[in-house]
């Protein structure tokens, strides 16, 4: 009996992209990858570059591990995954240092820490090892976008209220600041990590209230 | 006959091939990107030296093209290399010295260490920028300290690090720490002509001319910066005949 080759954009595969955006969002529902969500989101540009880095590592790792899933010996499964993810993370780190040096300095150790981001290993173990590269690619895209939108929302709020700018473009003129004789004060709390926890918690709250499927029985 | 993917020989072969492929890819990547990365690091060094000397605000420098920064540097900064006794070493390229590597290579052998000195001159007045390196909590810390024309007062500082803790040790790069060096006059030589350097202290500053308050929660990084600053000015103080003993 021949297997019908499933199209990359079949209904089942599109669900892989849509689910992690809302119903099974890696950050707000699965609660993975919180550390970077707190640390990098002071400025939108950093949040964006971090999201793109995680997206690259997640997609590449998922596709590679999925393609090799029938060849990886069981005894060294985790180590093999780590080697692949580590190679990808170092690749991203080196490319950032070469082409966006300023941003790479602000991301500092957090790019190297992508390997500790639970989303990566989580998706490899939960999905890539048991599925074909096509679906693995879609799953990675979905989870990466799920992670990205949370980071961008938190980054947007923190940068707007903490620094009065969006992607570095200031819309609150320095003349308006109280220090310069004006009336406005930037919200300093937005520049500290704990506020990101509050913002993510707020997102979880809104998401769970709006999304029927997530409201628990009691 | 199917290959048993869980047999020892297969496992070892797989591991070796995986590691060789990954290692090979990274080696290739590193050598392809090296030129661009080195240019970035050198550009940053020029930015640090110029901003420590107060030539431009660091944000302005970061907005300029690399060639612009290089031109400004070329036009306004001269360099020399000293030895530990303050004598000038001829024919040594100051800019090419990686201060962190230089300190590391000469631990315990300060006699062999090379001390670069950058002189920034504008409108007839000069500022002297001294690079230094030290040990933070997780890795090296380094800085560019600018001294004014009187060869005694700190005119500006820029610090950097490799992997200090974000929010704690990493704060040495921020204005909240660097402004402590210029809020009030800080001198490297005391009123009696004795070299004192700058100390980073915990629990309150007792001698405001020679001490800086450490960062709360970043004891070891602050200590590293302090150790770096205490001894780091000495060869230069000797060269300037500042030390009278």
Q: Reading side by side through the largest sheet of chain B, how are the strands ordered?
A: 1-2-3-4-5
Largest sheet of chain B: 5 strands, antiparallel
First CA to last CA of chain A: what distance? 47 Å
Count of alpha/pi helices of chain A = 9
Portion of residues within helices of chain A: 55-70%
What distance separates the N and C termini of chain B?
86 Å
Low-confidence stretches of chain B are: none
**Largest interface (CB < 8 Å):** A-B, 28 and 25 residues
- Kindly state the mean pLDDT of chain B as a whole number? 88
Largest sheet of chain A: 2 strands, antiparallel
The percentage of residues in β strands of chain B lies in 15-25%
Counting copies of identical and different chains, the oligomeric state is heterodimer
Structural class of chain A: mainly alpha
Secondary-structure element order of chain B, N to C: HHHEHEEEEHEEHH
Q: Flag low-confidence runs of chain A.
A: none
Assign an overall shape of chain B: globular
Number of strands of chain B: 7
What order do the strands of the largest sheet of chain A run in, or round the barrel if closed?
Answer: 1-2
User: What's the domain count of chain A?
Assistant: 1
